[in-house]
Write a structure and sequence with these properties.
7-stranded mixed beta sheet; 3-stranded mixed beta sheet
């Protein structure tokens, strides 16, 4: 039996046992690629396999290899934006860590324990943490999570060289259209097959799709921009020419940014968030004040004078590191009526605040990972826009 027939035979069995995998598999092209340096890979709307390497696998090993690849595809790892600055080994290991805890028969792939990382985090989070570990290692020492050689029967899925890892993720690139197509297939499926309850849970979460923070923040910026009209002789009226004074407009928008500095939010996450805000609200905002909060708002000068100005982000030092309470932030924005918009950066771990009817400031809740965002999206999403900066 040819390699292609073996693969198609296993995938056809999913019609009854794993209907979700079968639906996604049918939406992609299966293609032989004897030149690639790994057994199987996905990306660019296709699944590629190396016939020589696949031929050496036993039937059980091939089933496991295909199953692992389909989990990656269903979770959209090959179609998400590649984490910036991460090596192929970090990207692959991060994907492994994100799925290994949900499927018990995964011979040879990485687990969070290998990197001293907790379970239950997202693919992007694991990639970022593993990439940081790699940067800190001495190149002369054994890299963290170094992969072992394959077993004799070919059942070990780990890749042993950097070339193999680079080849494996070579086709991975952001494809929002295919992400939406996969989400549609997952949302419309009524049969979940033999997958474990935990795996079904993350597959259902994958069906929710990703919220593009760029679109959310851009839309929010457009909604809060306000202008002040002034008459001038230097510009003619569009209707009457120089017989009447023309108009110029000055931006008057002021923005309040509230940063959760409770112990559950890391300095790195805060720094990443502030630089994203600096980039999105560089133009059209006359003033952007940053305050800190945990159980209360920090009203000390060092907490209030962190201001984003033009192209430079002033230094920011987290003060507090206690619990979390959103109500003081809402109360602060209510009493300081000069702000047009409020961005709250948090992990969401606090009671739902009460929004006074007198408050006119628009709100965006910004999370630092998808897990927290989807955990709190139903209740906090009712109070304003919501997004995640991963």
């Amino acid at each position: 039996m040819t390699v292609e027939k073996r693969i198609r035979g296993i995938c056809d069995e999913w019609f009854l046992t794993e209907p979700i995998f079968y639906s996604v598999y049918c939406s992609l092209q299966l293609r032989s690629n004897p030149k690639m340096e790994c057994r199987i890979r996905s990306g660019e709307r296709r699944i590629e396999y190396n016939p020589t390497m696949i031929k050496a696998l036993s039937d059980n090993a091939l089933k496991s290899t295909l199953y692992i690849e389909m989990i990656r595809i269903v979770l959209k790892h090959p179609y998400l934006r590649k984490p910036k600055g991460a090596s192929p080994s970090a990207i692959l290991a991060g994907s492994d860590c994100a799925i290994s805890q949900y499927y018990t028969y995964l011979p040879g792939i990485h687990t969070p324990k290998e990197f001293n990382l907790p379970n239950g985090k997202s693919y992007e989070w694991y990639v970022r943490m593993i990439a940081e570990q790699q940067k800190q290692e001495n190149t002369e020492n054994t890299p963290a999570g170094k992969q072992q050689s394959t077993t004799g029967d070919g059942s070990d899925e780990q890749l042993t060289t950097e070339d193999e890892k680079a080849s494996y993720v070579e086709l991975w690139a952001q494809d929002e259209t295919l992400q939406a197509d996969i989400s549609s297939l997952l949302n419309n499926s009524q049969m979940w097959g033999s997958s474990s309850a935990s795996l079904k849970g993350i597959i259902k979460d994958a069906g929710k799709g990703r919220i593009d923070y760029r679109k959310v923040l851009s839309g929010f910026r457009a909604s809060v921009l306000s202008e002040r009209r002034k008459l001038t002789r230097m510009r003619p009226s569009r209707r009457f020419g120089f017989k009447q004074m023309g108009s110029v407009y000055d931006f008057t928008t002021q923005l309040l940014v509230a940063v959760d500095v409770s112990g559950s939010v890391s300095d790195e996450d805060i720094s990443n968030f502030l630089h994203v805000i600096d980039r999105f609200f560089k133009y059209g905002i006359t003033r952007c004040d940053v305050i800190q909060f945990d159980t209360d708002v920090n009203t000390q000068p060092e907490g209030l004078k962190c201001v984003l100005k033009k192209k430079k982000l002033n230094s920011f030092e987290a003060i507090g590191r206690g619990g979390t309470n959103f109500q003081p932030v809402i109360d602060y924005a209510t009493t300081h009526t000069n702000y047009d918009g409020l961005l709250i950066f948090t992990d969401g771990g606090a009671p739902t605040p009460t929004i006074p009817s007198s408050m006119r400031t628009k709100i965006v809740w910004v999370f630092y990972n998808d897990d927290d965002m989807y955990k709190h999206i139903d209740r906090l999403g009712q109070l304003g826009r919501i997004c995640c900066i991963q």
